[in-house]
Amino acid sequence: MSDKYALLPLYDTVENISETPDPHFDFPFWKSDYRSGISFLTSYNGSQATFNAYRRELERLLHWSWKITKKSVCDLRRADIEAYLQFCQKPPESWISLKKVPRFVVKDGLRIPNAEWRPFVVTISKSAARSGEELKIKNYQMSETALKEIFAILSSFYNFLIQEEVTEINPVAHIRQKSKFLRKHQGKPKIRRLSELQWEYVIETAEMLARENPPKHERTLFILSALFLMYLRISELTSSDRWTPHMNDFQKDHDGNWWFTVVGKGNKEREIAISDTMLKSLKRWRTHLNLSPLPSPSDKSYLLPKIKGPGAISNTSFIRKIVQTCFDATIERLNHDGFNEDAAVLSQTTVHWLRHTGISEDVKRRPREHVRDDAGHSSGAITDKYIDIERRDRHATAKDKLLKQEAVII
Hints:
disordered N terminus, 410 residues, 6% strand, globular, mainly alpha, 2 domains, 7 strands
């Protein structure tokens, strides 16, 4: 196989995925592997994020299997997968890029693989970027979370191949000592969320920005309110092929209670109970848009209309940029007031922390089952991860431990 074509992306978007890519491969089994990959990917096309993650891991495996081992993925065994995992932790520099690029580009009216694409991409934290740290290929490091995703996705892929009778074994399932690659954590995993102080500063900053520049930042305030009070994922606020949020997704039931219907992760629809505070935020947002305070069942106006032109906001990066602007202003306020450690943590915060923060605050005062259903968790065990009362009690009983017993003075 020519190195010129070795690392081209294999699979386009769901809409543009092709059964017959350019045949740049000189071995007999690539077509069957490639088409098995298409069948696997298209069975997960209900969620864009899931499709993207599965496509990423599948392309990495195919390129490694074809180029490094010269084998079909159906012929890989446990030792091969272990070697692949070690490869992923330290891939050759020629497999790594400093930036994400479009997988396919249009040339002469045709979509062609982008030669700048690479299977692995270097990333750094927001705080490191803020401090001026440069991206360097030699600094590539795969996180433990990414390794867990490889295990999960490749195992799903091989289980799919078994069901399709393409192969008979799942080599990932045969790896007995996963601890060589993944650390075991005792107790509950840490939930990334804001402290009460950090959240108060963030929402106060959003309110200040909205007062100073309503045309620009009333949107900021509403977005932050929705992410926190309704535990929304950023993808649930934006328009996509599967769903677009409209105003009449807020509806009142026969008891006068308001609910918000959302289509979320896994293309699952759920209803979220709307608090009085969220209803107040909605009224403020709609008044800013010159709409009636509350929507009617026939109000199909977009929940987040574009700033310019028709349609709803569909770019999650745009939402992230809006929230980050508020975070940046909050960091300045925290530093000014002497809360430097809180500011440092906020500099590493992502939008998704707001969902975690909202759930963590609510689970302190609401029944776990109610929070579970509003958050769209598949089980109460997921919601339990947000309960830290036991952790606080555990620390309180440990705080006064002594190295030796102090003498009792009578």
